[in-house]
Every structure is written in C-alpha cells, then in structure tokens.
Amino acid sequence: MTPFPVLRLHSVGYSYPAAAATAAQALVPLDLEIHPGEILALTGPNGSGKSTLLALLAGLIRPTRGRIERIGRPGVALVAQSTPVPDSLPITAGEVAAMGRWKHAGLWRRLSPADRLIVAESLETVGLAALRARPVQELSGGQRQRAFVAQGLARQAPVLLLDEPMTALDTDSRAAVVRALTGAARAGTAVVLVTHDPADAAVADRIVRLPTPDRTPGLDAAPRTA
Ligand SMILES: Nc1ncnc2c1ncn2[C@@H]1O[C@H](COP(=O)(O)OP(=O)(O)OP(=O)(O)O)[C@@H](O)[C@H]1O
C-alpha cells in the first residue's frame, strides 16, 4: 500500500433528499483513505450505506456532509449491484465489456486494436471469453454479472468500485473474479468491493465495516475513522 491515498474522505456523510425531513442518514459521517494497489472490502448490515458510499466515491452523488478529496482526480469505474439491460437491446457479452473502452474510443466508439485487446483480456480474466458473442439476455445471472465486471476491468480506471461482485457466482467464477481483482490491485488499482460474505471480505487487504446509521431525527453522529 502506498503512503499516498487516491481518495480521502473527510467526515463524509449522506442523507437522501427524500429523507431530509427526518434527518435520517444513509451514511453516518466517515473518515477514510483509499490507497492505490489495495483491495478494500466494505461490509455492514443491510441499510448501513455501503451502496451509498460507492455512489459517493463514484461521484454519482455529492456528500451532504464533509468532502471527498480526489488526489490526482482519478478516473473511477463502478460495477453496480445489478445493471438492467432492456430486452429490446441486442447486446452481447463482448459488447458489454467493450463499453468499458468507450471513453477512449472517440465519437464513433470504434475501438483500436489495443482497446480490443484490453476487452478480450478482461473477458478472459473473468472466464467469459467463450461467451463473448452471446446476447446478454441469454446469459445466466452469474455470467451477466461477470460481463459487467469485465466492463469495469476494461475501464482500467485507477479506482474500481464493485457492489457485491461475487454474489451468485459459482466456485470457479468466484475464483476468476477474485483473481481479476487481485490482478487489478497488483497493477496499482484501488479496488473497493461491497460484500456481505466474510469469505469475499477475506480476499481484501483491509475491511471497513459500516454500522447501522442512527436514525434518530436530528442526531448528527461524530465522524468515525476507518
Ligand atoms: N434512493 C434512495 N432514497 C432514499 N433513501 C435511500 C435511497 N437509497 C437508499 N436509501 C436508504 O439509505 C440507506 C442506505 O442504503 P444503501 O443501499 O446504501 O445500504 P446498503 O448498506 O448498501 O444496503 P444493502 O446491504 O441492503 O445493499 C438505507 O436506509 C436506504 O433505505
């Protein structure tokens, strides 16, 4: 773990607008540093704010309390818990993974040979190379999940966030994803994964457990340091 974090959270808390009237906190203020090359597991009971924290780290929502310091303005890839794909969208596993390179591919999203290689490697890493031409609608839940992990890997972002990436995976698929995450961390990526499974958390270098937020109206908890 390098001494220099890529993300630093200063008393970051969040309340959803819908909960503003009750002052319920989705995420109790948290101090946290996230370092390149580490795998950090976020655990905690249902409703403790794990997905909310990932959304904050991804920049999808802004803290309602505290601030997130983005050292070097790192790119962030988010693999959500379940990514809906409309049945009307005829998209293959390979195309799902290729979306991870769109940012690099210009207006017409034409991938360079180097981008295509990265996509192929990402699919290979999660054990989906043989299914790359299969429509997503024809994939099992676990195969679909791995296609989105491949997309996240293909982004090659300095920060990779994953919401329960191993849930519903069989032993071999889980091992493939663990290898992929370990490899990404070894290459210097800061990997943050949400999990309920102690076995999945055990692959992490560090575990941060979020407590159930105190939902007492008006209560403003003191920051915790993780
Ligand atoms: N869009 C939303 N609007 C209002 N409240 C929300 C919204 N999304 C989540 N919450 C609330 O915020 C709190 C934290 O939710 P979050 O999904 O981050 O928890 P979690 O730890 O990821 O839960 P789980 O383990 O069940 O996936 C919960 O009390 C939830 O009800």
TrEMBL record:
**Lineage of the species this protein comes from:** Bacteria, Bacillati, Actinomycetota, Actinomycetes, Micrococcales
Q: Which GO terms describe its molecular function?
A: ATP binding; ATP hydrolysis activity
Encoding gene per record: aztA
Protein source organism:
Herbiconiux oxytropis
Question: By what name is this protein known?
Answer: Zinc ABC transporter ATP-binding protein AztA
What domain of life does the UniProt record list for this protein's source? Answer: Bacteria
What family, per the record?
Belongs to the ABC transporter superfamily.
Q: SUPFAM superfamilies from the entry?
A: P-loop containing nucleoside triphosphate hydrolases (SSF52540)
Q: Where is the ABC transporter domain?
A: 7-226
Keyword annotations for this protein, in alphabetical order, are: ATP-binding, Nucleotide-binding, Transport
